[in-house]
Amino acid sequence: MFVCFFKYKLVFLFFLINVLLLSNNLSAQQPHKTKDFPSLCDVFFKKHEKLKSLPPYLLKSISLKETGRWDNKAKESFAWPWTVTSGKWSHYFESKESAIRAVKRLQLRNITNIDVGCMQINLKYHPKAFNSLDQAFDPNSNISYAASFLKKLHRQKKSWHRSIENYHSSNPKYNYKYRNKVIEIWKSVRSKEALKKRIAVRKAYQERKAKHRNYIKNIKNG
Predict the structure, then answer these.
(1) For 151-197, how does the pLDDT look when each residue is reduced to its tens digit (9 = 90+)?
(2) Do 91 and 102 contact (CB within 8 A), yes or no?
(3) How far is CA 117 from CA 3, 25, 78, in A?
(4) How far is CA 147 from CA 26, 130, 176, in A?
(5) Range 128-132 contact pairs with CB under 8 angstroms and sequence separation of 24 or more
């Protein structure tokens, strides 16, 4: 009786271990959680603004207008990399794979007017922008193309305000309101970034001051 109970106990123990291992493997295969997404677009804005000599925070401001998603915890919006828009329909997908599948389903229905990624590049009007949908949803590639497009518009229009308008549409019926909203976001972003810098400078100063006080204290104490 004792031997039989011991065998069942071992079998149950091995079963429990296998379940835990499977659970860990599945967790490792899951896509990035929402908290990781804010940086996926954000880390490339400054890079491409510098490469193309664009005004600071312009790419981020356009992206927030195009794909901004509110984060209740952070109390601010952030660009969502797996956003798909077609006409009045728009959706934030949880992964690149889900976004790609959605675009393919739209294309199977002969829908070509589709905006994708951090900067919502339109696949109909920019058919040669990307080599694949995987590249289209890559934040670095998506933002890089948008930066090049904005630079091209600025060479043509000689104005960043006009460039913002035409990034969205060449039709004044649509682009004027779009420009005003982007400029509103742009002002807000610049204000927030300036505040972050002031806080960082103040913190660095306080840390240096505290370090100096400790240094003097250690000298006095021998």
Answers:
(1) 999 999 999 999 999 999 999 888 999 999 999 999 999 988 887 78
(2) yes
(3) 61, 29, 13
(4) 37, 14, 20
(5) none
197 vs 131: CA distance, rounded Å? 38
Domain ranges of the chain: 35-189
Per residue in 72-126, pLDDT tens? Answer: 887 888 999 999 999 999 999 999 999 999 999 999 999 999 999 999 999 999 9
Structure tokens at 46: 């400054």
First-to-last alpha carbon distance for the chain, in angstroms, is 74
CA nearest 157: which of 144, 167, 147? 167
* Phi, psi of 80, rounded to the nearest 5 degrees: -105, 115
Name the 3-class secondary structure at 121: strand
Q: Which of 165, 46, 66, 181 is nearest to 116 (CA)?
A: 66
Q: Residue 194: what residue type?
A: A
CB neighbour list of residue 142: distance below 8 Å, 6 or more residues apart = 81, 116, 117, 118, 119, 121, 130, 136
CA 103, 107, 109, 112 torsion-angle sign: positive
| Residue 152 to residue 46: CA distance in whole angstroms | 18
